[in-house]
Structures are given as C-alpha cells and as structure tokens.
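Figure 3 (text version): structure tokens given as input.
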C-alpha cells in the first residue's frame, strides 16, 4: 500500500519529514489487517520534487516483495539520491491489547540498498547490517 502526496509549498524538507513522521502511525494502524500484521511502514520525501509518500512493505503486482522503503522509493520516481526516509514503524498489540505503532530499525537489506544518509539523523539500523548499531 502506497499513498503519494503532492508537494506542500512553503514546507522545508525538515518540516515535510516531521509531518510524515506524525502521519505515519495513523497510516500504519489504518492499513494493517490480520493478513498484513507483520508489515512495516515508512514515510519518504522526494527532495527534488517535494512529493511525499507513505508506504507499507509487501509485494506489488508482478514484483517480488519489497521493503516499505523500496515501495516508497518506487512511488517517488526510483532515484535513491533524491529520497529521504523517515523512521519506520510496525504495528504490534500492546500488553493492554490495543494496536500501536512502534519504531522499527532499518533492516539489514535496506542498509545494503541505502546509505545512512538516506535516513533522518538518529535512524537506527538493525544489528548485523552494513551500518547497523
Ligand atoms: Zn528493509
């Protein structure tokens, strides 16, 4: 699932990314179904056009499964040097039984596909990746 938004004139890159991070939990909770409960979700900004995307992991028609980052990148034109990613989240059930969006580190495969500079400062990489913590 991918949702692309047109540029927001007047927003800086940092403001656009902050807005994406605020919208991401609701997008994840709204998109999640029992069959897609293991998906991750990410926001992305095209730094050239100002377009933004919210995306889930999962295969697109005719393609193998992609990470959320790959799906967001494709939706924004496919050029990694023009895209910045927010932190990713996944949806878990809390101890109280409510669904909640929780942060996810950048997976090992995405650490190979994208340098740390594609992510916001403070992004965490999963252990065992090329720049993981
Ligand atoms: Zn990944």
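Below: residues designed for each position.
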């Amino acid at each position: 699932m991918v949702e692309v938004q047109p540029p927001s004139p007047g927003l800086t890159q940092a403001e656009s990314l902050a807005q994406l991070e605020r919208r991401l939990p609701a997008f994840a909770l709204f998109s999640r179904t029992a069959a897609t409960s293991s998906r991750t979700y990410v926001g992305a900004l095209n730094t050239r056009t100002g377009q933004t995307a919210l995306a889930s992991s999962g295969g697109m028609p005719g393609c193998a499964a992609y990470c959320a980052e790959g799906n967001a990148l494709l939706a924004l034109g496919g050029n990694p040097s023009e895209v910045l990613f927010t932190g990713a989240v996944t949806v878990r059930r809390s101890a109280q039984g409510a669904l909640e969006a929780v942060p996810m580190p950048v997976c090992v495969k995405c650490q190979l596909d994208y340098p740390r500079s594609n992510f916001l400062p403070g992004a965490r990489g999963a252990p065992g990746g090329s720049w993981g913590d």
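The chain has a mean pLDDT of 92.
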